[in-house]
Amino acid sequence: MADTNGTTISSASGPLDPERSLAFVRRFALGRGAAVLGMQIVSVAVGWYLYDRTGDPWKLGLVGLVEVVPVILLLIPSGVVSDRFARRDVGIAATLVAALAVVGLAAATARAAPLWLVYACLALVGVSRAFGQPASSSYVPELMAPEERPRLNALIAASYEAAAILGPVTAGLLIALTHGAAVPLGLAALGQLGFVIALLTLPRRAPHADPDAVHSPRDLLAGVRFIRGMPVFLAAITLDLLAVLLAGSIALLPVYAKDILHVGPAGLGWLRTAPSLGGLLMSLAATRMKPWERPGRVLLLAVAGFGLATIGFGLSRSFWLSMAFLFLVSLFDMISVIVRITLEQNLTPDRIRGRVSAINFVFVGLSNELGAFESGAVAALIGPIATVVGGGIAAVAVVLAVARVWPQLAAIGPLHTLAPPDQDPQP
Q: For the whole model, what pTM was predicted?
């Protein structure tokens, strides 16, 4: 099995050895980090541009809405595409669409175009994510030896957080220097092209044979049926969706930077960076940690910590104390990310990974966007402080509810012992 440009690997080739897994994952992580850096710049630049132009937190909430609607509408077709075509190729095409959308955002902000054009470009970003995220998520396990997944997932998460640290700071500084969003958005488009280049150097695995995927309505919904039949997985993604939906504070950072902490666009960049510092530290630590004996309990405690740290941020009036609470928010969130991703990879059969990943993306990946819409809408009614503090309290309540409804979650053993229903678990 070769590992160079465009090499096609049969779906029957089996898992990779650990050394080759590490080489592939490093390459993937580097390219994905470039794309993430670009999207972090987009988030900061567009958020600052909209709030500076309108002074309306509702306009910030709309950003999350226009990005999430295409993903929901394309939920089923995007999953089928990821299972019917080479997942690497789908990821390349989707990332090129994202690059085009970001170029459109740069042009729209440079010319002070009508706001509907900005939101149209953001909707195109949502379309790219609808197809790109399930394809990438279901492609990653093809690059990993199963026993290496928790450690390599932490490595990918570390690259994400490193990019998320650099992205907001870069955006904030460029906005302050250029007095506009166009330059940082142009840099963000280059980040998407970097991911395309990285994917082109990785092996292309032929799609799993599944001839009924586009003919049978029953098979179109295979991902839905699978998740409904997996209480542990359903509990984990429900926990994330509700907690982040209710306790998301990132969308309101432009309001905190400008009106509460009074730190301007450069301060906004640092506020957006603080969460990534916590996530990076936790992900690097996870590459060296022993497997958790009770990862379900760890997940519940981590989400509770996420809620408590959100409450602290909402109440803070100090820039540095706010930075500390945001650091803790992401540290706790990273623990839950590692547990959830590994649960999905180890429990999902390869033939339906794309469809399961598409549904999981709506629950987990888009909880931030849904949370942004909820935060902006509620903040417009009751104010940003009450919105953030109330959301943190609600997240803690969600943990208690999920633990009661799905007691199986707290009882699961080490992640490496889990396997799809049609396979024997590892000892």
A: 0.70
What confidence tens digit (pLDDT) does each residue in 100-112 have? Answer: 999 999 999 988 8
Which range, 55-69, 70-84, 92-106, has the best average confidence (pLDDT)? 92-106
Q: Which CATH superfamily is domain 8-417 in?
A: MFS general substrate transporter like domains (1.20.1250.20)
Categorize the per-residue pLDDT at 2 as very low, low, confident or very high, splitting at 50, 70 and 90.
very low
Asked if residue 199 has pLDDT above 90, the reply is yes
The alpha-carbon radius of gyration of the chain (Å, integer) is: 20
pLDDT of residue 373: 67
CA pair distance 406, 404, nearest whole angstrom: 6
